[in-house]
């Protein structure tokens, strides 16, 4: 079973356990001894089962079980044992002899076990990893508080106290005092926990004191093309516009230059790319982020971190050298969960200086407007022709927040590049599905055969035929059952760029959902190590460091992880080393229950966003910064790099 399977099973067992303890407690309170006995037996049986599911999950990593091992199971075992000791015998007696009643203590201990089971589950779902003293204390205090309140209610409702049938007048008095004491404990514990969390937050600031500081405002790109290169100048004006899709459907969009996707930027290696961004009427403001392109930090387009946001009437000029070959894209990084979805994106392709002749080279960004998937600017069938024998390259770009599954039928093909970087000896493949992560790019190449080739992405079909006669539409081939290509085992290994065992810095990012403060309000956030942006501590590196990340997904959502400014080399997934071509990516899909390790060399000084590229997730907290020591930003605020 997969880790996700164990996560779901463990959630299920935990939920059943809560239900069984509550059933036992409530049935005992209602003098349904038989039902209470059955529920108690179920609850007891579920404890070893729960220990088993937790043990299996532990095999996938401590991150998945920490709060369960340190809190949930101990409090459940302790309260469950107490319940069995106090309520077990009276329940059995009451079942045989309906005239006897389970004493108040029995009911209270059974319900306390229920509260403990519930607190454990709530800690998993709301707090996650890592468990802090503060949250553990709050959980325990809440269980105690609930137990005391229950004791008051139960003793008042006429259940005999454990000592017999004495009226519980004094007991009520003691209980009131206990309630106050425990309520005070909860408040103190909560404040203490929050205070500790705040005081532990490192103060990585925007204003430098050290004389060797470097401002991101000074980390700008080249001003001139490389030898033999020219300057590719573009003006992109952000503006709202009605975009008409090929099917005739009108989309109320935010655009660059009135079109979505925005103008394709095409350059040749060594060119200088100079783009002036103007904002006509996008009130939220805009920027340009060059996704996957390792520009200097000051060109990275993150508002409040690498530049001020560009508001209506303003402009910002980006300049960088087109040194990296391949397929990339650009998009706004301001409120990007809205802006990119509405159309503020376009493609960036850098060709080698010597280009292949007579090649069909199609750049195909996939984007969803509403419910409509658009490939390039087409939302229905698209036809192209290429003579048999023509080399064809399809540049597939996922600009959506979720992965896309693509298939190519009618020819064997190779995935020659991932995220703009060439693979080493990629083999010919056919009848496999390609899963393209959010933000990711695949270059697919083949030689045009004598019969049509069909690319299918959801319900969009792109057909390439050797001549117009063959381009007649027919039913798209059924590719649903094709297995998925695993890029970690595709292509041939090559000597590594570095020895990742000798990393200078290692960071673990545990991705989850939980209660955290987002935009100043508590929210059920997408979290990293139990926190949400901007409270997640910066990752500090020094120039030249070899850095490794372990990215763990405890949640039930896929998180396409994206580090700005650096490609990362995939080392392993779920403990299995990558065995194919060296795989350099800027976005990798961490699916529920997966653990990825990646490495990179810190060679691009700056302060870089490191976030989930499901942009709504990033907006809901799943975003942090990787900061080089000594680099500061003059644009910073508490929400630096927002969205
Ligand atoms: Cu995500």
UniProtKB/TrEMBL annotation:
Superkingdom as given in the UniProt entry: Bacteria
Originating species: Kribbella flavida (strain DSM 17836 / JCM 10339 / NBRC 14399)
Region entry Disordered, spans: 202-230
Residue ranges occupied by any Plastocyanin-like domain in the UniProt entry: 239-353, 525-627
UniProt cross-references to CDD domains, sorted A to Z: CuRO_D2_2dMcoN_like
A Pfam family of this chain: Cu-oxidase_2
MF terms in GO: copper ion binding; oxidoreductase activity
Protein's name according to its UniProt entry: Multicopper oxidase type 3
Keywords (A to Z) from UniProt: Membrane, Metal-binding, Oxidoreductase, Transmembrane, Transmembrane helix
InterPro entries: Cu-oxidase-like_N, Cu-oxidase_C, Cu-oxidase_fam, Cu_oxidase_Cu_BS, Cupredoxin
Ranges that cross the membrane: 12-30, 37-65, 71-92, 104-127, 133-154
Gene3D superfamilies according to UniProt: Cupredoxins - blue copper proteins
């Amino acid at each position: 079973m997969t880790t996700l399977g164990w996560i779901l099973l463990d959630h299920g067992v935990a939920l059943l356990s809560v239900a069984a303890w509550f059933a036992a407690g409530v049935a005992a309170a209602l003098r349904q001894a038989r039902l209470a006995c059955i529920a108690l037996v179920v609850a007891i049986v579920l404890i070893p089962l729960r220990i088993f599911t937790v043990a299996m999950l532990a095999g996938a990593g401590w991150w998945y079980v920490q709060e369960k091992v340190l809190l949930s199971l101990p409090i459940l075992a302790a309260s469950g044992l107490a319940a069995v000791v106090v309520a077990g015998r009276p329940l059995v007696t009451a079942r045989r002899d309906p005239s006897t009643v389970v004493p108040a203590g029995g009911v209270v201990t059974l319900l306390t076990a229920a509260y403990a089971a519930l607190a454990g589950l709530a800690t998993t779902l709301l707090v996650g990893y890592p468990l802090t003293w503060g949250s553990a204390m709050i959980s325990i205090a809440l269980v105690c508080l609930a137990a005391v309140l229950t004791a008051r209610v139960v003793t008042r409702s006429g259940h005999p106290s454990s000592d017999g049938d004495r009226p519980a007048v004094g007991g009520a008095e003691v209980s009131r005092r206990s309630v106050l004491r425990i309520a005070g404990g909860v408040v103190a514990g909560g404040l203490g926990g929050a205070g500790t969390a705040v005081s532990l937050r490192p103060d990585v600031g925007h204003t430098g004191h050290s004389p060797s500081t470097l401002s991101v405002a000074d980390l700008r790109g080249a001003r001139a093309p490389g030898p033999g290169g020219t300057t590719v100048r573009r003006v992109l004006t952000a503006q709202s516009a009605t975009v008409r899709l090929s099917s005739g459907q009108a989309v109320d969009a935010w655009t660059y230059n009135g079109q979505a996707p925005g103008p394709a930027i095409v350059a040749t290696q060594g060119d200088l790319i100079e783009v002036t961004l103007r904002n006509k009427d996008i009130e939220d403001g805009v920027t340009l982020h060059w996704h996957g392109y390792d520009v200097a930090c000051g060109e990275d387009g993150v508002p409040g971190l690498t530049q001020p946001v560009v508001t209506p009437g303003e402009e910002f000029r980006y300049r960088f050298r087109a040194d990296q070959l391949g397929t990339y894209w650009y998009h706004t990084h301001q409120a990007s969960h809205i802006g990119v979805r509405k159309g503020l994106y376009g493609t960036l392709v850098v060709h080698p200086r010597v280009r292949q002749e007579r090649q069909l080279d199609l750049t195909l960004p996939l984007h969803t407007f509403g419910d409509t998937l658009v490939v390039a600017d087409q939302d229905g069938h698209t036809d192209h022709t290429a003579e048999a024998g023509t080399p064809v390259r399809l540049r597939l770009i996922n600009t959506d927040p979720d992965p896309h599954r693509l298939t190519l039928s009618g020819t064997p093909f190779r995935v020659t590049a991932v995220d703009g970087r060439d693979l080493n000896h990629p083999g010919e493949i056919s009848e496999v599905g390609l899963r393209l992560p959010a933000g990711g790019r695949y270059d697919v190449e083949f030689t045009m055969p004598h019969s049509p080739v069909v690319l299918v992405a959801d319900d969009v079909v792109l057909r390439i035929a050797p001549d117009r006669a063959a381009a007649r539409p027919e039913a798209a081939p059924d590719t649903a059952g094709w297995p998925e290509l695993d890029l970690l085992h595709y292509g041939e290994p090559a000597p590594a760029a570095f020895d990742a065992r000798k990393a200078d810095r290692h960071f673990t990012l545990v991705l989850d959902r939980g209660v955290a403060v987002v935009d100043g309000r508590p929210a059920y956030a997408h979290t990293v190590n139990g926190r949400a942006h901007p409270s997640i501590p910066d990752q500090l590196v020094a120039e030249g460091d070899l850095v490794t990340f372990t990215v763990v997904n405890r949640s039930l959502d896929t998180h396409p992880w994206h580090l700005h400014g650096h490609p990362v080399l995939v080392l392993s997934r779920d403990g299995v080393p990558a065995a194919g071509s060296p795989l350099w990516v800027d976005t990798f899909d961490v699916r529920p229950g997966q653990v990825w390790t990646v490495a990179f060399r810190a060679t691009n000084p700056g302060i870089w966003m490191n976030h989930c590229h499901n942009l709504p997730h990033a907006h809901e907290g799943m975003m942090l910064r990787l900061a080089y020591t000594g680099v500061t930003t003059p644009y910073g605020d508490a929400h630096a790099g927002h969205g």
